[in-house]
Amino acid sequence: MEEFIVKGGKKLRLGCTTGSCAAAAAKAAACLLLTGCPMEQATLVTPKGVRIALPVQTLQTAADSVTCAVEKDQSDDPDVTRGALITATVSRTGGSGVTIDGGEGVGRVTKPGLDQPVGAAAINSVPRQMILEGVEEIRALADSRCGLRVEISVPGGEALAKKTFNPRLGILGGISILGTTGIVEPMSQRALIETIRVELRQRREGGAEYVLLTPGNYGSDFIRDGLGLDPALAVQTSNFIGDALDLCGELGFRGALLVGHVGKLVKLAGGMLNTHSQYGDCRMELLAAHAAAAGLPPGRVAELLDCAACDDALRILKEEGVCEETLARVTGRAAFHLGQRAGEGLEVGAVLFSKAYGLLSQTSQAGELLKHFRG
User: Fold this and answer.
1) Taking the model in full, what pTM does it have?
2) Which of helix, strand or coil describes residue 75?
3) What are 292-304's pLDDT values in tens digits?
4) What is the spatial distance between Cα 209 and Cα 256, in angstroms, rounded to a whole number?
């Protein structure tokens, strides 16, 4: 594609989803099978309304089947599927309709709550519709009523999937064929938030009324080593803490407990519910303000402001005997902002820790929320 967006002052090229690639490969394979005419490019109109033409490779031809492939577009999005070959084998069947399934390198759904039912190939509903529309267009062009089976495969997809959230979500054996718009926007936050939504929805449909949240692997480790809980109970939110709380409310959870490193969660005390550094790094300023209110001498406040890491700042607070009060103030403000975002329908609490000092503090509701995950 030669379409671009500008983010952070940089011109970034858009790409095509795995769903668009699968649909293009399937359309080309159906065309060669039913008309005998190969396609050098398969043209599609994506759900976003963008007309695209993707280069097609023909891999195998036989009397009753054709396999074509499209290489995942080299956009400026740092996705693990960049350069992967998305293949489609279209075969004649004895029926009259079109069936779609996954082959090598396409995952299978093993847990409820995903876009597809348990046992189905992880080819989401929008890509399935795109594949079907492309193949039906060719059937109409060829005036063919024969049944067709479309099998989507991704050579090496099982290895690629280990670098994604798929195993955690219960999609095993390969990657997912995804895309709601057909277009990949580089460094899009939407895909990450949708992944959080999927995992939360799985928990809710499994009967969970309370959920553990953590920004990442540090939190997962502390949940295991510091709280004695199974880290698999937690949904990883990355920096999207506010969005995760919105989703918890939307899905009807009664409560959410956030467990995170102080270097991340201290930002909550300043009302930063997206903790990515691109939105600001106010860690030391917040710690310094609350430490000053707790009685930290001005000279040491200045020293704290020069710290690069929260553990170093905590050292100063401990040396001056104001660590406990400072952290109580920080967690109090964090609780306020979390509560504001969660609203009245969702109980929310937070637990803060550091790798050097372990458990540091927790909000007033955290103890009660923890009980829902024990026993």
Assistant:
1) 0.69
2) coil
3) 999 999 999 999 9
4) 9
What's the pLDDT tens digit per position in 17-43? 899 999 999 999 999 999 999 999 999
Burial class from Cβ neighbours inside 10 Å (0-12, 13-18, 19+) for residue 228 reads exposed
Question: pLDDT by residue (tens digit) across 280-331?
Answer: 889 999 999 999 999 999 999 999 998 878 999 999 999 999 999 999 999 9
Q: Which residue has the tokens 């637990």?
A: 351
On the 0-12 / 13-18 / 19+ scale of CB atoms within 10 A, 321 is: exposed
Q: What is the pLDDT averaged over residues 148-152?
A: 98
Provide the 10 A C-beta neighbour count for residue 245.
24
CA 311-266-296 angle, 5° bins: 65
Q: Packing angle between helix 310-319 and helix 298-305, nearest 10 degrees? A: 170
- The per-residue pLDDT for 289 is 98
How many CA atoms within 13 Å lie on the side-chain side of 98?
23
Name, in order, each residue with C-beta under 8 angstroms of 279's C-beta and a sequence gap of 6 or more.
Answer: 272
Nearest residue to 360 via CA among 339, 329, 320: 329
Place of tokens 């396609």: 39
> What tens digit of pLDDT does each residue of 336-354 get?
999 999 999 999 999 999 9
- Sign of the C-alpha dihedral computed for residues 53, 54, 58 and 63 taken in this order: negative
Q: Are 184 and 79 in contact (CB under 8 A)?
A: yes
Q: Do residues 114 and 123 lie in contact, with contact meaning Cβ atoms separated by under 8 Å? A: no
